[in-house]
Amino acid sequence: MSTREVPIVIITGYLGSGKTTLMQNILRQEKRKVALIVNDMGSINIDASILNKTGNQVAQLEMVEMQNGCICCTLRDEFIAEIERLSEDRSIEAVFVEASGISEPSSIAGAFLNYEEMTEDTRVYLKTVVSVVDVDRIYREFLYNLTSDEDTEEGDVINLIMDQIEFCNLMILNKTDLLSAEQLGEVKQGLRGLQQEAEMIECVNGEVDLEVILNREEFDFDEVEAYSAVQKALNNCEHDDEKACVDEYGILSFVFEERRPFNRKAFNKLVEEYPEVLIRTKGYIWFSDDWKHVQLFEQAGRNASITEISEWVAAWPKDELDKVVSDFPDIKDDWDETYGDRCNQVVFIGKGYEKSEILKLLYDCIEKAG
Questions:
Q1: pTM over 0.90
Q2: Structurally, what CATH architecture does the domain formed by 6-225 represent?
């Protein structure tokens, strides 16, 4: 256990999952004096009756509104400054951070852990990263392929929700009253295909005991990062096996690696007719008509997206490339004479599929020579 005194709890979850309701219930419990940092679409909107009831037991700190940025990126420095200020208040026993619904928890946790390492005398330490999961939405929009009026943005939304589920050490399954026991069982099984270690707590209206959140093992970044099925596949699967790896939940996974580029038109057609047996896909790809940019391909359930994120090192101007190679000669260890560092590396996770069939679909999309 940490010798530091004040635990930090980061609460993530997409808009409408129930983060604010959870925070309100925490304030009602009057067990500890807690501080709140809120980075969402507006204030936490805790009504006066709740604040009057809790009295001096609560220190409420509203940080910024959503339109000003997110603590995982543009407001990271302000977030750390708030943490530093709170660490000087000897009366505070715990700090809860309600992250923006579109925040990436790994970025927030990484920023905070960097602060911990650089600040020896701080009283605060990262205790838990919570993901509040709207089980009704997961059932309707992830497990089953229902149509949506928001198709233009739904792919990005569900992939973000998956990221929040994959990077946490506690999942709070909210709105369980909206599903039958059988439906909830299906959701839990689906979530275990993505996140196999984090504890799950079922609740209605965000009613969770504060001590359940705080009384647990201290957060371990590397351990939690390895919880996700994507990371497990990267760590454990032999890339040249004929069969995919199978875990204790019957989830199959494998890593596809190929230097040659995809044909954009063929790959887009594959995405439009994506195999339903695949639960989650994530990785980097590139196209034959664009030798410059790295593309991030993500799929969760019926939703998929392709996003241009950076440039391949091999596409840099020669003088910059020569300098990088000089400063970091190890980069040449995995360098191809034709393609440089360009490579498709994608993790596929699903249930009840044949790896050979998925590989055929992928190789049919690889750009043919000539």
A1: no
A2: 3-Layer(aba) Sandwich (3.40)
